[in-house]
Amino acid sequence: MLFAQLVVAGIQTGLLYALTAAGFAIIFGATRIFHVAQGAAFALAGYAFLMSNAAGLAWPLAALLAVVVAVAFGVGMERWVYRPIQRHEASFFTVFVASFGVTIIAQSLIEVSFGRGFVTLSTPLTQARPLLPGLYVAPVFWIALAVTAALFLGLAVFLRFTRAGIGLRALSESPELLRSYGLSSSRLSVLAFAIGSALCVPGAILTAAVTGLQPSIGAHVMLISLAATIVGGIGSVSGAACGGLLLGIAENLSITLLNTQWSEAASFIVLFAFILLRPRGLFGLASTR
Amino acid sequence: MSALLSLSGLNRRFGGLAAVSDFSLALESGIVTALVGPNGAGKTTIFNLVTGNLRADSGQILLHDKPIIGLSPHRIARLGIARSFQDLRLFGHMSVLDNVRAATEPTSWFWQAGGAAARQQRRERVETALERTGLSGLTQARAIDLAYAERKFLSMARIIATGARIWLLDEPASGLDPRSRAQFVDLLRSATAEGVTVCLIEHNLDIVTEVADRIAFLDQGRKLAEGEPADIMQDKALAAIYFGDRT
Amino acid sequence: MIAYLVNLATLTTIFAVLATSLNILIGYGGIFSIAQAVFFGVGAYAAAQVALHVTPDLLVASAAGAGAAALLSICLALPALRVRDEYFVIASLGLQMLAVTVFTEATPITGGFGGLVGIPPASLLGLPLTDPNAMLAACLGFLVLVLVLTRVLMRGSFGRSLMAIRDNDTAAEALGKNVMVLKTLAVMLGCAYAGIGGALYSAQMQFINVESFTLDQSVLIMAMVIIGGTGTLIGPLVGTVLILLLPAALSFIPGIPPTEIGVVQQMIYGLVMTLLMIFRPGGLVTLRTRRQ
């Protein structure tokens, strides 16, 4: 039963990674911006939720605040960091370093404001209950499952059936096509950042409830979701989701094979295997420049 | 007499699209051959097949009667085949001088083989290349700071400096003003006079008639005709394809 | 006070070697690695083992550090050859995370969390380096060697080939450059330098553990190169001095509690990196000033 228990835990972690990675993939797909500060959005949203909740705000309002913080961060990055850079130079290196710099700033701001230790939320939802003999599942697992499923469904509908969603998909394939469609690409890239940033909020809130937050959580989540994006195939939203799920499960299952120290390393062993053996990822098209 | 470089029966498909089909061509020493045809006819793909950037699905490429298919691009380059790119691909953040010097240094090690004598030879090649392209006065400028025509000549200077005997030029004269164009024609003439074999892709038919000894006309990956410029230019059917597709 | 300054100068010298090592990869090779602390660590552990069990001679230890780092640099060269920028950055981050686990777990070689203690004071060709000034002089000597070698190689055909690949690899191949060999050599050279840095570090500290070889350290080294200026000889040196002097400078500013200096320092270099990328992406020392 340990195995089943770990698979459940793996799915739960994996779902959170999947959402964050999908957010990253939407941004990268539509704008070609390698937004590593996605991890910072995750951390800021998580802390915004925890702190406002602790200050007495009801949880739906706190969650709303977290969404506002994440979206404001993402859109602010697009407006004040990436756009000025792309005006003079669009090299991958420049964008990456700027984004990485912001991640460092966010992490140290959180550290100064809220301290270095773990902060967490105590809720009965994380208490495990027996589902089968020997298999314990906390209600938060079902919440994670339901929220992720609902969001991915919503996302799929949005990308397929709305004008803006179709525009976002077109942007990743051909910006010229889009102009004839009558949508502005700069508006769409703001939209991509808003949606992509909002997608990391559920993961941030659930992580706050399940394991707690610490300032370096942003860097950790960023790493995993980037790895998930590569495993899934860069730019593919469904690939990123599957990659996230796969890495979450690998991280937890590795505990049965290796000792706990190696559980984080497991993700990167998977990542390395993909980079060396199948750089296109699970769903990726030919690896483009 | 066997050709210096001979392509025979080359095929290459991208997905369902045949980019090059059953293409054959022989390049003779000191001869300028122009590949002419509408956009998307497969001309650049043929260059990529020769230089090893793409692999042919089938067919044979012989250099001095030895097959070169399957060799990596840098090996093919070292056999004496130099190419230019439509988008030039200069080393943007390096100086003009370093761009040209880099073309004379193929040894992939911490230093070049051959000692002082070879170094002197490389230096002379760099000087010749810079002189012939009129870039001697700009050696310290960065490639990205050059004007358009200067960039085109820098790309030519790199090719001259390699010392290669076969040049594959992808639209080398496009966008040049008349004076630069004349300079380019002179450059090409002096190279062929020394026995360099040239194959070029060019849309400007005036230039083609001016420099080419032979023309191969392509459409949709196939060679429709090959011959002396005068004969090809008078072919009404080809003109219809060429100008029809261009508008 | 003097002892503190000499120690700071020695550490600055060691980090200057590290920044130069990363500059080979990022600045000249266009290989954007965030795993330089891994090879710093490999060099430090290898050198410490040599010092503990074979000889305290700094030359031997440095050779061991450089050799071990160059050997393991294949872990970085493989992804660098196979995948493009975005993928490679992540691969290097992954390598960094993996290496920290390995450093922590491979107790027989690295001493695990406790690290390696009691590394004997170094000597150089039989002369003891117990005096901090002598150690500083030795480290400066190594830095000068590294800088001279870098200058010779980067101004020569090797540097030109590397920069050609950095600027356009297809064109470089068309000129006969073997991209695979050149990139591998660049990675090996850069990592060997980092290994030398590690050897000097273990001799200077006489104690090493995994905390010096984490992602934070890699980011610090990256910040030195990027803030100073990539692809120039002096840029990384300027960056190193600025970043290492920052905590000392901050401690003079009233109102910052000593425990928070590390955080404030991070915030400042995060901010500087971002602002530089927006307004001056070449770094403080840019190429333009080097070429008229």
Summarize the structure.
The complex is a heterotrimer of chains A (289), B (247) and C (292). Chain A has twelve helices and two strands; from the N terminus they run H-H-H-H-E-E-H-H-H-H-H-H-H-H.
List the helices and strands and how they pair.
The complex is a heterotrimer of chains A (289), B (247) and C (292).
Chain A: H1 2-31, H2 38-54, H3 59-88, H4 92-114, E1 129-132, E2 135-137, H5 139-161, H6 163-173, H7 175-181, H8 185-198, H9 200-210, H10 217-232, H11 237-257, H12 263-277
Antiparallel strand pairs in A: 1-2
Helix pairs in contact in A: 1-5, 1-6, 1-8, 1-9, 1-10, 1-11, 2-3, 2-4, 2-9, 2-10, 3-4, 3-8, 3-9, 5-6, 5-9, 6-7, 6-8, 10-11, 10-12, 11-12
Chain B: E1 5-14, E2 17-27, E3 32-36, H1 43-51, E4 58-63, E5 66-67, H2 73-78, E6 81-83, H3 96-103, H4 115-132, H5 148-162, E7 166-170, H6 178-193, E8 197-201, H7 205-211, E9 214-219, E10 222-227, H8 229-234, H9 236-246
Parallel strand pairs in B: 3-8, 3-9, 6-7, 7-8
Antiparallel strand pairs in B: 1-2, 1-4, 4-5, 9-10
Chain C: H1 2-28, H2 36-53, H3 58-72, H4 74-82, H5 85-105, H6 107-110, E1 123-124, E2 127-128, H7 132-155, H8 157-167, H9 169-174, H10 179-205, H11 215-228, H12 235-250, H13 261-279, H14 287-290
Antiparallel strand pairs in C: 1-2
